[in-house]
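Structure (tokenized):
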């Protein structure tokens, strides 16, 4: 069954499907990236999320290209996101870096290009202290050249996003940040929405997929009977309830899976609706726990957390 996914309109005027396929994996065979993307497109994903630092743009691009060649999808139906890594923040580096990504992805343009983190580093991983406002000028020029339809940021905090919004000629269309039932991020989500910046949830499954040692015993979301009851009521899994909760908050999600059944499962969240009371139950799992704390960068000038 091919699922038709609702879309959200961005300030750029383009629309983005509210479920995208995440593609980050610490360890994977190259073939898994291509295969995951191909399964995703076959099942109805039209939004795919990658990044230069994931080192998988070639395989992701191959999967996209195969499905276009097979006539399963057209380029125009797809929404492809990639991201600028922190060692390419100088304004002059932005265009050549996107061109490298486009080359690997076999694309003429991306639908969304993101500054992956507000921090900048040099080749040795040390703080380069390049102001993301400078980087943004490079990002804006990509839109004028037609190489990125929309541009945005990722991992920006409220203060950083506000500082960017104050001077940007082209407003960031999205802020891709960690949001899940154990990290609900209400303040930053509200701030984004109040400025028409779409908050996109990365690691949307949070502790459902990844219990950290320090949280063992606290990852109630995996075991809590109330969530089990909710899942049973709707004939869904705990993961589907988590994704539905986010989408119902008006937050697009990019869950990653390379398991065909779970790729399908994560898209199958549009035939039920949680009540306000049920939304509050899921919201109550918040632990303010980041799965992606970025602590190695804590001393960098533009560290966001
Ligand atoms: P997710 O919350 O998407 O969880 C992924 C993990 O959950 C995988 O191990 C996957 O395993 C498993 N999983 C997937 N679906 C289900 C399911 N239905 N039930 C149970 N387990 C499931 O975490 P990610 O950190 O991967 O985040 C998603 C995407 O967000 C990334 O892939 C990337 O594209 C983006 N991202 C962006 C960041 C940024 O800084 N902008 C930072 C982190 C992520 P399996 O594959 O075996 O199914």
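Design, position by position:
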């Amino acid at each position: 069954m091919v699922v038709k996914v609702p879309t959200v309109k961005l300030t750029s005027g383009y629309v983005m499907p509210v479920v995208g396929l995440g593609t980050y994996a610490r360890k994977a065979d190259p073939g898994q990236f291509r295969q995951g993307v191909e399964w995703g497109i076959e099942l109805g994903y039209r939004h795919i999320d990658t990044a230069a630092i994931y080192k998988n743009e070639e395989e992701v691009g191959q999967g996209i290209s195969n499905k276009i060649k097979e006539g399963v999808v057209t380029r125009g139906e797809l929404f492809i996101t990639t991201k600028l890594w922190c060692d390419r923040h100088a304004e002059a580096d932005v265009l050549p870096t996107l061109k490298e990504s486009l080359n690997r992805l076999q694309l003429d343009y991306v639908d969304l290009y993101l500054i992956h983190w507000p921090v900048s580093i040099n080749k040795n991983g040390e703080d380069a202290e390049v102001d993301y406002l400078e980087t943004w000028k490079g990002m804006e020029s990509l839109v004028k050249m037609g190489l990125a339809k929309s541009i945005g940021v990722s991992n920006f905090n409220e203060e950083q996003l506000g500082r960017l919004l104050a001077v940007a000629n082209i407003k960031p269309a999205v802020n891709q940040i960690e949001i899940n039932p154990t990290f609900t991020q209400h303040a930053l989500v509200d701030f984004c929405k109040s400025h028409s910046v779409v908050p996109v949830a990365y690691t949307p499954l949070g502790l459902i997929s990844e219990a950290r040692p320090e949280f063992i015993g606290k990852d109630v979301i995996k075991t809590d009977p109330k969530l089990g009851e909710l899942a049973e009521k709707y004939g869904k899994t705990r993961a589907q309830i988590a994704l539905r909760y986010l989408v119902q908050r008006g937050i697009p999600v990019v869950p990653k899976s390379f398991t065909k059944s779970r790729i399908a499962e994560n898209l199958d969240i549009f035939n039920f609706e949680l009540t306000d009371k049920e939304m509050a139950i899921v919201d109550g799992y918040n632990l303010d726990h980041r799965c992606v704390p970025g602590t190695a960068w804590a001393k960098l000038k533009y560290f966001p957390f």
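Reviewer-requested clarification: The first helix runs from residue 30 to 43. Residues 22-24, 49, 116, 154-155, 176, 202-205, 209, 237, 239, 254-259, 262, 265-266, 292 surround NDP (CB under 6 Å).
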